[in-house]
Amino acid sequence: MEEKLISKKELLQITDISYGQLYRWKRKKIIPEEWFIKKSVSTGQETFFPEEKILERIREILRLKDTVSLDELSAMFSNEIKKCEISRKYIVENIIPEYILEMFENKYSKKERYNSDEVLFIVIFKNMLESGSFNFEEIISLIEKIKENFSFIKDNEILIIKRKLGVLFYYLTEREEEIIKDDEAKVLLKLNFFEIKK
């Protein structure tokens, strides 16, 4: 199956990074040169990228850039380290209040280091808990569903969670605006996966 591509313009819009940042990361070899794919279009030439790979890479860069130098990032990615690990201490001090992390750990398990996917699940747990719209069982049930299907979820997708007549339901979409609006269904939370993964 042919790899799905994303244009440079779309990439900059989705990730909210600048042209300069993108090419600085290219010069530093944080983003491989072979991912910059030139293609002929009706207006001339345009640059495209392998969508899944570039979005995942930029997500990792944005998460780490304030704590790791560009040279360290370059070394890390050149060694094909695909998932960084973050210490529990760093998570508590910079990402999640400790009492929320402890609630998550009481359901799953306590670790001294968490990989990037696990941190994402913890952030979703926090967002749902702090919204005040869900009971604990609903939060855990949804996180389990996200875990089961995580490999199929794209970075540019948004999870919209609603309740209608007391029943919780949710769906993934690539657009925030709704094509068909149901006034009886209350939107409880929108989870933008790219924003969370930052």
Automatic annotation (TrEMBL):
InterPro entries: DUF4004
Pfam families per UniProt: DUF4004 (PF13171)
Domain of life: Bacteria
Protein name: DUF4004 domain-containing protein
Lineage: Bacteria, Bacillati, Bacillota, Clostridia, Eubacteriales
